[in-house]
Amino acid sequence: MAEATAAAGTAPAPRRRYLVDRGFQLKYALLMAAAGLVVAGVFGVWLHQAHVQATALLSPDPETRALVERSDRLLLGAFVAIALLLAAALGLLGVVITHRVAGPVFVLGHYLKVLSDGRFPRMRTLRRSDELKGFYGTFLEAVEAMRVREARHTAVLEDALRRMRAAVTDHPDLAPAIEALTRAAQERRAALAQDDLELTPVAVPAPDHRTAHN
Questions:
Q1: Can you give the pLDDT at residue 187?
Q2: 23-63 pLDDT, tens per residue?
Q3: How far is the first Cα of the chain from the last one, in angstroms, to the nearest whole number?
Q4: Which of 52, 45, 40, 31 is nearest to 80 (CA)?
Q5: Model-level pTM greater than 0.85?
Q6: Cβ distance 87 to 40 under 8 Å?
Q7: DSSP secondary structure letter of residue 19
Q8: How high is the pLDDT of residue 60?
Q9: What is the pLDDT of residue 194?
Q10: How far apart are CA 198 and CA 116, in angstroms?
Q11: What span, in angstroms and rounded, lies between the C-alpha atoms of 47 and 52?
């Protein structure tokens, strides 16, 4: 037991994954990047028109024209670089923002998978920056209510089994039912006792049970 505790204490902390739902997050990151390029393009067209009108008023001599063309190339290169940086920044912002939604949804999906396997998930709190805290809290309350209800039903079933075993000598026809109900009670008790063996694949801290009970 001490070795298991020591091993758990030295286990490396899970790395934060920003792309927990690649399709969803990249979709909105690309949309934000494309919106940034569109805004930059509209601004570039307006800037170009203003530049053309301004240069039309300059002297038409070749030296001035060459200087203007050289400055135009520099301005175009700077504008393209700024537009690309803006698109990249908005795309990165889209990944970070959608991560605050995709992370909780990913955790909830993992919990539902655990519940579908007949086990109860190891519940955790969300990160401070995550969204959907209200929905997540309602989900946690629902799972805890399911656990309490399952424990109550299991206790009633076990009590009924004790009464049936006491009466089986007078009613031997109860033996098959007792055997089937015993297996059902054992499965329910195992489901209540067995915690989620997998760590949720998102770095979220475990809740403080002492705080929850206070």
A1: 81
A2: 878 888 888 889 888 888 888 888 877 777 777 766 667 77
A3: 29
A4: 40
A5: no
A6: yes
A7: -
A8: 67
A9: 60
A10: 14
A11: 9
> pLDDT digits over 80-134, tens only?
888 889 899 998 888 888 888 888 888 888 888 888 877 888 777 777 778 888 8
CB 107 within 8 A of CB 137: no
The torsion region of residue 10 among left (phi > 0), alpha (psi -120 to 50) and beta comes to alpha
Provide the 8-state DSSP code for 129: T
Token look-up 């298991």 returns: 4
Rounded alpha-carbon distances, angstroms, from residue 132 to 23, 38, 51, 52: 19, 31, 48, 50
Task: State how far the Cα of 130 lies from the Cα of 97, in Å rounded to an integer.
Answer: 9
The neighbour count for residue 84, using CB atoms within 10 Å, is 14
Positive or negative torsion for Cα 156, 158, 162, 168? positive
Spans of all domains in the chain: 18-116, 124-201
In terms of residues, how long is the chain?
214
Q: Residue 37 has which token pair? A: 């390029």
- How is residue 153 written in tokens? 């039903």
